[in-house]
Structure of Peptidase M1 membrane alanine aminopeptidase domain-containing protein:
Amino acid sequence: MKKRIYTFLIVVSIGLLSNAIVAQIHITGNIEINMNSGVFKCNVNLSNMPKLKDYSILLNKGMNIKYFKDYNNDLIKYEGHYNGQMKGEAIEYVLKIDSTSTFKEINVSYLGAFPVYTNDYNEFDYKGVIAINNQTVRATEQTKWYPVVYDITNDKLINSYTYDLNISLIDGNTIFLNGSPPKKKSNARFVSKKAYPLFLFAGTYDFIENNGDYILNTDVTQENAKVIFENIEVIKNNYSKNLGIKFTDHIYLINHKAINKRKKGSSWGFNTYPAFAFTGLNFNKLIDENGTFYNHHFRYFGHEFGHNYFGNNVASGKLKWFWVESFAEYLSYNTIEDLIEKNYLKEVLTKQLSYLKSDDIYVPLNEIESTNQIGEKYRYVLAPLMLKCFEDRFGRVKMNLVIRSLLQYAKDETLTIEHFQKSAIKSGIDKEDYKAFEKNFITSKNFKQNIIEEIKKKL
Ligand SMILES: [Zn+2]
């Protein structure tokens, strides 16, 4: 879950939706990929669709629709074939379901073909490209290789699904679908009751496993792989210990080859949690001579693994970016504080302060009306520093209790700033003390400046 830029075309009232329990889309069906021709042949069903007022179905522009059907196996009329609208990498299909039919399931059959790069290159490559070379196919959720639901009213892509998919590969021996262990098979069934964005990585490659974590398609030595897993284990265990909640996500590190020519020595990474893909990264060089991750890797993974706790489970309501990203980022401070020398945290905090400019304007959390008001700097810099101030004032023990309490609330409620207060009081923080903190660092007109001053004191 990394930085994405959101263009808000429509001003929406999220208030009505924020407490609704959103149905979890489930995808089933068959996928066949021919590694030689680059052909995808797919027939999938989306069920348990949420009730959306206005939505469309997005499919990569390289895919051709055979048909859309409803749950009665009747054809669904749709728009998008002629003069279709593009949205990112996809064409937008609008289903024309008449008011008498009950809309429960969508079946879509489609076929697409993508170039296979062997000894040649494209001018560019990025996460939104379905990239096939003579060894692997890489298709992330961003490519919309599977039908992604676009909630038009809320300008939101819904692309994390539970799944039960049969995937077969012509001329390949290994398949990975995000959230499930890779399988050394050319034909395999993948089932997950937990929703993930469907990042597919298949082809002819090997992988290494350790306690349910995997490294895919790399020439990393067994010895270095062991050390990488040990480092990952240290980060996971630190989280489990601090928060008293077991780290449950398995991690997938993937080495892939870009389809564009890249400068020697440059590396490019992206992630679709809990999978992390890298190109040009030498896994043998992820660790220093003492066998530990470099500092910035601790921080990077500290943030990313923080999403084991603050991920889809808290991604709702007006403050969703605060809960998802600011907490993951704050947790990365804990990771580096606990696992590497303290000076590095100071270095990071100093760097973070330098991003905050005097003319930046931020709306206090209690006045936030829509999700886009918590922009990237707010969610990745300012709000995590606010949480750091909170920790500095009340101590890490209480902070950890607050986090546990929030995660408990998040199980069946959309988190609000009131939950933060309730959790603070439940964790033994005096109400007046909380109020004093809130007044200075959350609701004040000068909250940004107050946070900056407070952090500076500790540097
Ligand atoms: Zn993140």
In short: The chain has three domains: 26-207, 213-306, 312-458. The domain at 26-207 is CATH 2.60.40.1730 (Immunoglobulin-like).
